[in-house]
Amino acid sequence: MKKEKIILSFIATLFGLLVAGVAFYLFQSTKTISNSNTKTISFVSPSPSPMPSIFLTLDRPKDEEVVNSKILLVSGKTSSNAVVIVITDSLDDVMTPSSNGDFSTTVNLDEGQNILEITSIAPNGESITKKRTVTYSQEEF
Amino acid sequence: MLKKSLIFLLTVNCLMLSVVSIAHAATPTPTPVDKIQEIRDQLITNIASRVAALKLVEKRGIIGIVTDVTNTQIVVTDLQNNTRFIDVDELTKFSNPDFKETYGISDITKNTTIGVLGLYNKESRRILARFVNVVTIPFIIHGGVANIDSENFSLNITTEEGKQMIVDIENITRTSSYTQEEGYVRSGFSKIKENYNIIVRGALDIKDKNRMTATRIIFFPEIPASPKINSMLEHTKK
After folding, report:
1. Do the interacting molecules here have an ipTM over 0.90?
2. pLDDT tens, B25-67?
3. For residues B169-191, b (16+ Cβ closer than 10 Å) or e, as one string?
4. What is the pLDDT of residues B215-236, one digit of tens each?
5. Under an 8 A CB cutoff, do B218 and A85 touch?
6. I need a labelling partner for A37 at 20 to 30 A (CA). Which of A26, A129, B16, B178 fits?
7. pTM to 2 decimals?
8. Are B115 and A112 in contact (CB < 8 Å)?
9. How far is CA B235 from CA A126, B157, B232, in A?
10. Does 3.40.50.360 match the CATH number of domain A56-136?
11. What is the pairing mode between strands B154-159 and B164-179?
């Protein structure tokens, strides 16, 4: 008797699930979206910005460097036809790099933190700037 | 039975004695040579740990704008827009050129620009400050000359970021130019023309963020303003 009851309830559950599934399928198939309500979105990949015609790499000084000499060497590499400007707290220095793009100059540092701004400008006006903080201190700690 | 137990006890005793003698032989009394070796090893270990500590810490100097300050720590945003944590202890010295009396951490407020010199720990990425001083960052702009106001001795400069800046020329302004032929020479306001590539260093106007007073100017008669600036200028003219 008990076994019959269990089988019957199992069959009833299965039947219920089947009916619910069919009903859900029918409901979903009736849902249609008209063409007027749809929007076509096309993803356009952004056009890459043109690569700058100029580059600037600094060999010296390192950013946040602490030195105990008042005279500091600034050196690096850039486009050979560029103009390099080194701006310090006290003065500016303008130079043209060598045929292979190397440049170097010395600057005088003030006591404490000095901000060095090194800019390279190409003949067409494009430029690139790098900043360095260099501290001149003779304090021992 | 008694005999057997006696033999057993004797055997065990002999074995114990032999073990003790072997152990004694393994740990001989240290000779002077061994002691020197021991000291040398200790020294090498000490030096190695000291070298490792020195490599982990280095002197560094930074400039930043204070974003948060407590009794033991200052948080700043450095020139590269990175957040930096600075530890302060009883050995840290504070100074402010505009402050004649003693200056301390309690005098540092948010938005103050400070220079920090201290020991940077590469592992924790924190700086243990030894010297903290209030500094002024110079304002430098690089762009193209958009307009010249000869009556008021001012220039309108457009930067690559599209920023417009009115630059006032004062008596203190040192103007220079650079050409391939003449090199870097002293020049004057009257030599500046529209569309020249120009770099201006000076101080921002406290009341007007789009105005500055120039202390140094370098302009480049042979180099036009950047193509980006040119297109912006053409767009504004249209």
Report:
1. no
2. 455 566 778 888 888 888 888 887 776 666 799 999 999 999 9
3. beeebebbbbeeeeebeebebee
4. 999 999 999 998 888 777 676 6
5. yes
6. A26
7. 0.71
8. yes
9. 19, 15, 5
10. no
11. antiparallel
CA A101 – CA A92 distance, rounded (Å): 20
Summarize the confidence of residues A50-77 as an average pLDDT. 92
Report CB contact under 8 Å: A87, B199: yes
Pick the CATH number of B139-237 from 2.60.40.10, 2.40.50.320, 3.50.30.60, 3.30.450.20: 2.40.50.320
B201 closest CA partner among B148, B165, B149: B165
The β-bridge partners of A54 are: none
Q: Do A83 and B220 touch (CB under 8 A)?
A: yes
H helix count then E strand count, chain A: 1, 8
pLDDT of res. B99: 81
| Chain B residues within 8 A of A92 when measuring between CB atoms | 176, 184, 199, 201, 216, 218
B51, containing H or E segment: helix B32-56
Q: Which of A113, A123, A126 sits opposite B63 (nearest CB)?
A: A113
Q: Is residue A6 helix, strand or coil? A: helix
Task: Tell me the domain boundaries of chain A.
Answer: 2-32, 56-136
Q: In angstroms, what CA-CA distances link B232 with B169, B183, B227, B235, B238?
A: 24, 29, 9, 5, 10
**Chain A nearest-CA residue for B176:** A92
Contact yes or no for B229/B144 (Cβ under 8 A)? yes
Bond preceding residue A61 cis, omega within 30 of 0: yes
Residues in chain A whose Cβ is within 8 Å of chain B: 63-66, 83, 85, 87, 89, 92-94, 96, 112-113, 115, 117, 119, 121, 123-127, 129, 131, 133-135, 137, 139, 141
Residues 6+ apart with CB under 8 A from A41: none
Beta carbons within 8 Å of B16's beta carbon, 6+ residues apart:
none
Q: Please name which of B209, B200, B207, B206 lies closest in space to residue B167, comparing C-alpha atoms.
A: B200
Q: Where do the structural domains in chain B lie, given as residue ranges?
A: 57-134, 139-237
